[in-house]
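Support request from a user on the community tier.

User writes: "When I paste my structure tokens into the form, the page sometimes reloads and wipes my input. The last time it worked, I copied everything first. Here is what I submitted, just in case something in the input itself triggers the reload:"
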């Protein structure tokens, strides 16, 4: 298998003056530097999703789900809002079904004291329902504003880069294994 694995990273925060784009762009740079994946960055704030679940998908929904369909692996960059994921992120995840199936998901989380890890724990339940496999190790920033204020990066860059490497190593293993398995037999549900 010589083709590079495709990784779609989702920036899950849409808040004005958010940190999500800073954390997401930092992660994208780290992932590109490591070079194991062909990366596409999907910003949930840029997706023109309807607020209701429509019977027929709009062009924006189709464009979003076709990006997910092409990916071999995902990373979700999520803050913690009230001990969970942002509503916009959940709404975006809910637009797709089989596009998530039998693929691995890693996390970069951030927030206040818990570093977004409570949002990650909820996301693990969501992705289990979507037949996706979440990798154990995550990248996490508590007190995110202390790391990414004024365009700065992580306070301990070596440690944070190491966490990305560990998470992407696990993601790559699962992406290879599941891509091979999907090519041998379609993943069916039920
Ligand atoms: C609506 C809302 C709820 C929040 N709830 C939590 C929380 O439960 N735990 C926490 O550690 N931080 C919480 N925070 C702090 C955020 O994690 C922090 O502000 C982070 O920067 C938000 O991500 P964003 O800047 O990309 O929007 C909350 C922030 C908002 C806006």
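"...and here is what came back when it finally went through:"
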């Amino acid at each position: 298998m010589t083709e590079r694995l495709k990784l779609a990273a989702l920036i899950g925060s849409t808040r004005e003056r958010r940190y999500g784009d800073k954390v997401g762009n930092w992660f994208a740079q780290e992932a590109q530097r490591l070079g194991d994946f062909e990366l596409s960055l999907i910003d949930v704030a840029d997706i023109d999703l309807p607020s209701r679940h429509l019977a027929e998908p709009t062009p924006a929904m189709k464009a979003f789900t076709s990006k997910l369909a092409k990916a071999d692996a995902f990373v979700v960059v999520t803050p913690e809002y009230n001990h969970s994921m942002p509503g916009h992120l959940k709404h975006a995840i809910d637009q797709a079904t089989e596009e998530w199936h039998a693929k691995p998901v890693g996390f970069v989380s951030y927030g206040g004291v818990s570093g977004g890890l409570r949002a990650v724990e909820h996301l693990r339940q969501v992705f289990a329902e979507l037949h996706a496999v979440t990798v154990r190790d995550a990248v996490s920033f508590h007190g995110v504003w202390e790391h990414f204020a004024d365009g700065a990066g992580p306070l301990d860059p070596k440690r944070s880069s190491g966490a990305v490497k560990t998470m992407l190593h696990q993601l790559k293993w699962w992406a290879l294994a599941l891509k091979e398995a999907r090519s041998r037999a379609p993943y069916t549900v039920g």
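Agent notes: The reload is a front-end session timeout and is unrelated to the input. The CA atoms of residues 28 and 119 lie 20 Å apart. The mean pLDDT is 96. Escalated to web team.
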